[in-house]
Design brief:
Elements: E1 2-10, E2 13-19, E3 23-28, H1 34-46, E4 61-67, E5 70-77, E6 82-83, E7 99-103, H2 109-120, H3 127-141, H4 170-178, E8 185-189, H5 200-207, E9 210-214, H6 218-223, E10 227-231, H7 241-244, E11 254-258, H8 263-273, E12 280-284, H9 288-300, E13 305-307, H10 330-337, H11 348-352, H12 359-373, H13 379-387
Parallel strand pairs: 3-9, 3-10, 7-8, 8-9, 11-12, 11-13
Antiparallel strand pairs: 1-2, 1-4, 4-5, 5-6
Length: about 400
């Protein structure tokens, strides 16, 4: 499963890191980046490149994903945007088993069917076939036993001659997607409501390895019982309608306002452990400075909100510790970042100054840790229970 995706110099994103969950629904206004995320994954996994999406033709495009706490980065070098192998990070063959299916807003049925055919017929490469692959190097220089390059990726493409006039109903599209048999398929569906019925949400999310949807429809948002993430072209104070247009007033779910996007994984995991996930939507506000304004405006509109801030704010709605990252396991932090903490600092400045990477990297990694490792006995979860 992909925990985060980093996109640089592609379409709406100059550079942006986006957290993902097993099932993630993105909401936002036009040109906020919803479709860009799905298309960036199509570039990463399927090499589907759109030259017109390049923001700055003098700069490279970078797409990086995090899977099981490992980084996998592909760099597409300007001006031709071929893969620059020397700048890539991670052993790509380790994620060769993952397949990605992109379902755009306007579906071309023959391509979708052929994409699913290739996914369903995906097979592991045997040691015999790998040997045949490496023999290609023998042909290049005439020397036997060459094995100087690592495998980057192996894929097989199947295509049937399908009539261009073929078309399907919403129910039929659901059946087609549901008939994907390959276990490690990530499905990205743009504007879900355009081609699928609402009842298909649960069906698709139950069988897939990971799903990433975009939608503008309130019914989709209301019935999506997983992670709903808002994207903003500016910030939440300028685009509050991203929230108000997506969530029903007086709906059973309360809007839990938190400071940053990396906090969301912590709170969603905590809510799940407490059996409260169905009652809340976690909304990051882009920092403490925005929370009061956002809360006031939402409550004026009739939305039910709850606010929890970092401990450095020191209010009755705050955590006890300065920042949420201070609740992570100290042994994991030392092993992951090569730090030498003997005890967790009390202040965030004393914490972050000990790392040799940017604060955002620490937050990103520890949000992934929280999704996998928080438990009911975790101090953070116990505090969250009290605050709620």
């Amino acid at each position: 499963m992909i925990d985060h995706i980093f996109i640089k110099n592609y379409k709406v994103f100059e550079r942006e890191n986006i957290p993902l969950d097993k099932n993630t629904l993105f909401i936002g206004t036009n040109a906020s980046g919803k479709t860009t995320i799905l298309e960036a994954l199509d570039l990463f996994f399927n090499n589907v490149f759109h030259y017109e999406y390049v923001r700055n033709i003098d700069k490279d495009i970078t797409i990086e994903i995090h899977v099981k706490d490992e980084r996998y980065r592909k760099v597409f070098k300007s001006p031709d945007y071929n893969i620059e192998y020397s700048k890539c990070i991670g052993n790509m063959y380790d994620i060769n088993h993952i397949r990605y299916l992109y379902v755009p807003k306007h579906i071309y049925a023959p391509k979708l069917l052929n994409d699913i055919l290739s996914i369903n017929l995906a097979i592991d490469t045997t040691s015999i076939n790998q040997g045949k692959i490496f023999r290609v190097f023998d042909y290049i220089d005439g020397k036997l036993g060459n094995n100087i390059y690592n495998l980057f990726k192996i894929s097989t493409k199947f295509q049937m001659n399908i009539n261009d006039d073929v078309s399907f109903t919403r129910d039929e599209y659901t059946k087609i997607i549901s008939n994907i048999t390959y276990q490690y398929t990530i499905i990205g569906i743009d504007n879900f409501e355009n081609n699928f019925n609402l009842e298909a949400l649960k069906e698709i999310t139950e069988f897939s390895y990971q799903t990433i949807f975009t939608s503008k429809h309130k019914d989709v948002v209301a019935n999506f019982d997983y992670s709903v993430k808002a994207l903003y072209k500016e910030d939440i104070t300028h685009e509050l309608d991203t929230i108000t247009k997506a969530f029903e007033k007086n709906h059973r779910k309360k809007l839990l306002l938190v400071e940053g996007k990396y906090d969301v994984a912590w709170f969603e995991k905590g809510l799940s452990l407490l059996g409260e996930f169905k009652n809340y939507r976690v909304i990051p506000c882009g920092g403490y400075g925005n929370i009061q304004y956002v809360r006031e405006q939402l409550e004026k509109e009739g939305y039910n909100t709850v606010t929890i801030t970092d401990g450095d704010i020191n209010t009755k709605h705050s955590l006890n510790r300065d920042v949420i990252e201070l609740y992570a396991d100290i042994n994991y932090i030392n092993a992951r970042f090569n730090t030498k903490f003997t005890k967790m600092p009390y202040r965030k400045r004393d914490f972050f100054k000990r790392f040799h990477v940017k604060d955002d990297v620490v937050k990103k990694v520890l949000s992934s840790w929280a999704k996998k490792n928080l438990s009911l006995n975790s101090v953070f979860v116990q505090e969250l229970d009290t605050l709620l």
